[in-house]
Design a protein that fits this description.
The complex is a heterotrimer of chains A (about 300), B (about 350) and C (about 325).
Chain A (H helix, E strand, L loop, with lengths): L13 H20 L3 H23 L30 H37 L1 H16 L2 H11 L4 H11 L1 H16 L2 H8 L4 H9 L4 H24 L10 H10 L8 H29 L4
Helix pairs in contact in A: 1-12, 2-3, 2-12, 3-4, 3-6, 3-7, 3-10, 3-11, 3-12, 4-7, 6-10, 7-10, 8-9, 10-11, 10-12, 11-12
Chain B lengths: L5 E5 L2 E5 L3 E18 L4 E18 L3 E5 L6 H8 L7 E6 L2 E2 L5 H10 E4 L13 H13 L4 H14 L4 H4 L9 H13 L5 E5 L7 H18 L2 E6 L2 H7 L2 E6 L2 E7 H6 L4 H9 L38 H5 L5 E4 L2 E3 L9
Parallel strand pairs in B: 5-10, 5-11, 8-9, 9-10
Antiparallel strand pairs in B: 1-2, 3-4, 3-6, 6-7, 11-12, 12-14, 13-14
Chain C lengths: L6 E12 L2 E13 L4 E5 L6 H8 L7 E10 L2 E2 L5 H7 L4 E4 L13 H12 L4 H14 L16 H13 L5 E5 L7 H18 L2 E6 L5 H4 L2 E6 L2 E7 H6 L4 H8 L39 H5 L5 E4 L2 E3 L6
Parallel strand pairs in C: 3-8, 3-9, 6-7, 7-8
Antiparallel strand pairs in C: 1-2, 1-4, 4-5, 9-10, 10-12, 11-12
Helix pairs in contact in C: 3-4, 4-5, 5-6
Classes of the chains: A mainly alpha (about 300), B alpha/beta (about 350), C alpha/beta (about 325).
Amino acid sequence: MHSSTLGSSTSIPPRTNRFVEALKKVISTINRLVATPTGKLSFGLTMTFVLIAILAPWITPYSPNAIVGPSYAPPSLKHLLGTDDIGQDILSQLIFATRGSLLVAFVAGGISVVIGTMVGLFSGYYGGRLGEGLMRAADVVLTLPLLPLLIVLAAYFPSSIWLVIAVVGVLSWPTTARVIRSQTLTLKTRPFVDASKLSGMSDFEIIFQQILPNQISLIALYGAYAAVSAVVIEAGLDFIGLGSVTNLSWGIMLYFALTRNALLRGEWWWFLPPGLMIALFGTGLILLGYNVERITRGRP
Amino acid sequence: MRDSDIENELEGVTRLEGVNVSISLNNLIVEFEDYGVQLEGLRLKRRIVKAVDGVSLGVRKGETLALVGESGSGKTTLGRTIVGLTKPTHGEVYVEGELIDYEDKESLKRLWRKAQMVFQDPYSTFNPLERVTDAVKKPLIKLVGIRSESEIESRLRDVLNNVGLDYSQIVGKYPNQLSGGQRQRAAIARALISNPSIIVADEPVSMLDVSLRAGILNLLKKINKENGVTIIFITHDLAVASYIGDKVAVMYRGRVVEFGPVKDVMFSPYHPYTNLLISSIPTLSGHGEWLERKDLTKNSDQGRISGCRFYPRCPFRTDACKDTEPTLIEIEKGRKLACYNPIRSP
Amino acid sequence: MNSNYFIEIQGLTVSFNTPQGEIRAVDGVSLGVRKGETLALVGESGSGKTTLGLALLKMVPPPGRITQGSINVDNIDILELRGEALRRYRWKKVAMVFQSAMNALDPVKTVGSQIAETIVQHENVDKKQAKARVLKLLETVGLAPEVAESYPHQLSGGMKQRVVIALAICLNPEVLIADEPTTALDVVVQAEIMRVLKELKERLNLTIILITHDVSIIGSVSDRVAIMYAGRLVEEGPTSSVITEPSHPYTQALLASLIEPRRDGQVVVGIQGSPPNPLALPSGCKFNPRCLYAFERCRNGEPTLIELGRDRRVACWLRC
């Protein structure tokens, strides 16, 4: 494949070019992100959690399920966060729980953002009955009560983390949808969208190549919101017993702490850390969302 | 050449037909729905605004037609309808003999190979996240279907040269790296690259500094004279219209009120509104005199009363003007007027 | 300089410190305006005209700073004003109509109440008196009294612009700075607004500084015109004189680029090139790369303003 001698990057075939372009943009965004103090902090924090989740098996002192110590032991050098009622190491549990919670955060958050963005883009771009219909659907979903629905579903389906993820994802998209739709309505009126039509681009091409990229900042922000609320909702569900006990997450740990009397016994080393993790992770992710939004915000 | 054009009188509507006709509009009506909230009673009232209310006109090949009017005159909507971006509610649009079917994507695509548009705002005419040269090339790739990289590059160079841009200065740049004037030239390049026979320019210079306007206008004139591209030039400034246009159609609230060769209309206007536009042109010796009615009330959309739309502001109005709306009729060869009491007699 | 100038600007420099270097939006400008006079300040985007206007109100936005020079209005040193004195100066002595101010009207309040609020906040009048003044102001700018009860979204662009002008003069300032009052308006409305300014000048004896890039509007209302380029003053003089006999090549080019209705086939030429990058200004005369008459000296040194007689000044090597 020969490229033009002028070194213009537009001589590379379109497919490859777009991917490379996107990758370069991501890298440059990260660079700009870590240039500011809050950017560094939020990026670092979030990445730390991601790394903990990925490297869990290699960094835990013990296997989370192994009984390695006395029951209800307070923090010591051997068990930095003590042990639970059976004698499992809490720190190891905490580290492995990161996997579960982050899974919920990114998958449920991802589902929510994807559905929300799609609905927002299409209802905003097409308007008319499709647009109105989608927004009415969003309204209906907003009024659906999450908890009773899950209780009912839990009665019929085996309790599983995927059920929770699915329900959270499918129920939390309306907020994103509204915002994306509003922004799409604005962008639709810009001349470059008209010019794209005149250039022969199809509606899909315009939606995904012209309008969507101009909303990255919003998607990042609402994605962060969606991810964090997913974690918190899941923890809440776990806490009231609707969660999946086989899937270790911070929320499940809180549930165990509750049901196995850590609260009664005042064993802060069991019930405090998971809550703290949720708070820290949430803060980091939201800050990341704010910073990415600020950086990628459109320059008119 | 002109003899083969037929002025077809059909139920009182004139349609320009013939091989040399580029665009023909037939009793065009474009309506928009508008939701207004009435403050008294907080009701959601559905309002229908007729942006274009019965326009019939024809444009000959290679001609430059200036569409002149204030905001709200419907000139932009008319331009957008010609180029296929806005769907008419009633009436027909013929471009190079073909009736445009606004529901049919193929019909629209054929239209876009013939007619392109240059937009008013150079600062949002390009996607800020896309390189300008990529946007300029798109019509070649998507509309004309050219795949060969080398041909695309060569046509890109040609068109950039044609609009007075330096290829090496523009290639690879994003819109915010170019000045307003450069962006507008690039927008013209984008419109030209697929070799359309018609370009609709919607106020292409009104957001540029005055010193940059001549360059862009001269460019459009060149494109019209040298490449034979029919140009529809939309503007609110009659002076600019007179510089660039062969013919002018003066629009007021959705209708054409005066039409004719631009120099004739400029120097012997008939319609009082045309006269208002002329006296508003800023000249270095000050503005002209105009006797507008001084009762400036709230700008509510006057309910559709019968009669001439210009009645509230017209210093020449008569009672006849209040009852029936004047129609556009040919008062002398090549000049049309919709007025019961023009400022001079034909 | 003449002390019968109401506004006297001496050697004013306004600098912006950006990460890429220092930008002098206004560079060593000396200018005088007499009481009751209307001065048109003309220049392309980036010429520094808006910054100069803001400097007159001591409202240059950070990171801009006035680094050199002085501004005297009615013999008061503006740059020394602080706190209460500054507050009394702004809007009561000198007021400004900002660019796109008409978009900054509060959408949830009637325009009448917005003007009344401003009056009540700054002066010791009760609501009734304020309301009376609002009606009088509306009449001055050519608006019917019912407009006071309207919300901004109910008004057309031209009407909003008049409201904004009424707001600017509601505390009876002696000087009005109008920044691009006619941009984004239709030509008919432009003419209306220029008429309003003319009214204000004649009825209230206002001193007006009209900032614009559009040379065509200066003929209708201005007594004098000052042309700016790249932050510097390049020509200044009585409007009619400058228009009929422009001295600086930039002025000539600006006037030549105007499109006026003419019977003959006129050819209008723009100015080649584009305004210079403020971070990379050309050496010598800032206009020289675009000047049709540039010669050696123009590239080497910057010309200073010289008196041409008949109250005119120009900064150009051709006139030396």
